[in-house]
Fold this protein.
Amino acid sequence: MPVIPDILHATPSRRIDWDRTKLALTLALASGSAGGLFAEALDSATLAPSGFRPSEFAEELFLQRFVSQGLRFKIAGQQPAMHVKHLFRLLSQPPADAAIVQFRRDVLRELTERGELRAALEAAYVDLCKLRGLLENPAGIRVWDENRRRLDILHVFKSLLDRLADGFGDARSGLRRLAEFGIQVRQSEPYGALADLLKCDERQATVDVRVAVGADGSVNRFEVLAVKEQRDNPFVNPVWRRWLAKLELFVRGYRFSDGEILARLVDAVISGLEDELASLVQLLGDLEFYLGALGFRDEANAAGLAVCLPELVEPSAPRELRGLFNPLLLVSGIAPVPSDLTSARLASTTLVTGPNSGGKTRLLQSIGLTQLLAQSGLFVPASSARIAWVSGMVASLIEETRADQAEGRLGMELMRIRALFERLQPGALVLLDELCSGTNPTEGEQIFELVITMMSQLEPQAFITTHFLAFANRLAREAPIPHLAFLQVELDAQRRPTYQFAPGVAGSSLAAHTAERLGVTGEQLSALIQQNLRSRQLSHGPGTIR
Amino acid sequence: MPTLLVTSKMSPELAARVQAAVSGRQARGRPLKALLRFLTFAFVLVSVVGIVRFRQQRLQSLERQRAALLATLEQGGRSLTRSDRELDRRVASAVALESSPVYAGDQLPDEPRRDADLTEMLAPPTLYLRGSLDALARPDRLRDVASSSSKDAFLLCLLAPPDDHSEKSLRLKASSAAAQSKSSLQVSAHVERLAPLLQALPLLGRDWTERVKSAETSEAVETLAKLVAAAPLAAAVRAAKARQLLLVLDETAAATGPTELDGERAHPVRVALVDLSNGESRLRFRGKVDPSGLSDQARAQYASGIDSCALALDFRHAVSAGGRAKR
């Protein structure tokens, strides 16, 4: 039974389109150019079953941006080109199978704990990138010696196999699968043929020479002492036989050259290793997944932030997120302020109140991304975390006004609520920003209450921001809905937001502060009016003011 | 078809893959290309083999032709001694000596001889040559004269003289000689013309053998073979065995007098019998022929033959008489 070097899943499987990839590899090996071979294979790879639908949250969470900027990594100072789409698909559709998540967490934990394994993984990735470069020839450089290119591919391929076999032999996690794959290939006949061919390429024959140098440093005599051929190498043939083989190939329709013989031998070796070569295409995506996670960890650490593999608990367990930070701020070069988030129960509806620009929306983004990372088996942006499994995620954080929208603001809001209930699964994570803000508060509050009442029947983990403070206070006071929690943005002594969150409902949205900060007080607006009047008088002359 | 790229050191799996790499998964159009190349290669191979084989056959054929020709020549010249091979030169010397403008005088036996003695003298293998003195005086004309010289009425009458000197008897002999009758040929069987010797003796020499050996083409050998086949080798060998030369030299006729229809006219004739072993003349005689005394009928048809026969009788008579008899 062939070992599949799948280090993303507890049960290894071939996730890429096997036949298509093998055909693409054959064409790449033959033509010297196969731009996008790896990307096409990885982009169309199948994923483990997932309850998450990216269309319901990815855009709201800026997931694409996080993947492309947050999962970057560097090897020896170089930042390789990753397959972002593949990583995006992996992250946006976390597996429903907890065993897969645990498998990935084990791998990641071991890579974190054992530097030599990470180094081996990075070296393997560098080899894979070399292999990809040789196969795809992305720069479109003209290949003058096709055989040389294919031999170079085989050299890298063998180096990679050796690295996998030797570098992960003592791994305890799923990484051990790489060693098993490498060892199994090394013990196979095609690998022996590969090694023999490369030996033949490196040293088909050795010539012992003696060079006599004169007093002036010039070479006076050049004497061949011995010529030794690798007689036991299956690819070494006597000269006369090679010549006849050339003749034979010519009759068969090939060119009459030594290169044609080598090409046929390389073909024979490669054809025995097609499955193994195709496996490496898939492996490249797997390595990027882990190296990306490690890169995120490195970047967070460099910014003085901690990440962790969260503790996965039951939904009824208390929520506890320590040092939670917004990874989007981190990858944008802004120092995020970590905050702690605790509540009595994970499966609850939490209303978040506080001033504008107090970090409410950023909190929702952080929670969403944390959930995705946790359920993908990766580090989460928190120093410690207890997270419960969710069946899916629905996020509504951005509400843009579009020219072609059919309804007004309230109408769009109601359509949004309708769509939410259409797709909401029990036990999902719901992230809603400023629900029902498009109508008068009295009517909006009624709809708001209806929504959270209905939603609670599905026992979601919901976070909803709102400025309906009186309404929130009433809910906190009367507790008409079970498992309802409240968070408010903390303010400092100058009533400025600290980006920390505490239980309770905010007393004010501090709109006046925001208005003052943005220049919308009575005095400021009056000054602007006077300024406009003066400038008009100067341009039209006296008496023109009516 | 197994490929030469597979070696005995390869594992069966690798050998199968190498075989497949060479013959399997062929590109579109490659079978046709391979077929064309195979046919081209086969054509070239067959052509090369054909050319080599053709050349070998031609060489073998050439060798066979050459060997056959050399065998013919070797067989023909096997009986020839060194002396025989040089006979043409001795003949040329003798002819040159006897054809000097100034006649050296008769050389006849001092004593009268019996007829049988002359017959005995003429019995050894003899070469016969008759021609004009003017032509034979020039060595370069010897071959031409020899070609036109045949066993004529003089030779027949010398070896088998008519019963009498009458015109009728002479005419019978002349007609027999002109017809090359069987009886006349039997009588002169031991006498050979010089022409075959001059024509064919060189073919039996070493130079000719070398020429055959050095012939490079079948056509060249064939040409040489045709020449050999056309050459009177047997007659040449017989001629080379001759011990004496019977030479008849027709001196230039006088400007006056009639000329017969066959060109005969009155003129002196020298007859010499030369020993070819030492070049010395055994007999020398100078007579004269004159057709004027012949009847009109005989003269019109056999003037030359009758004159020759009469000359032979005169010669025999002179020898018998021991230098006294003259016509």
Q: What stands out?
A: Residues 32 and 525 of chain A are 68 Å apart (CA to CA).
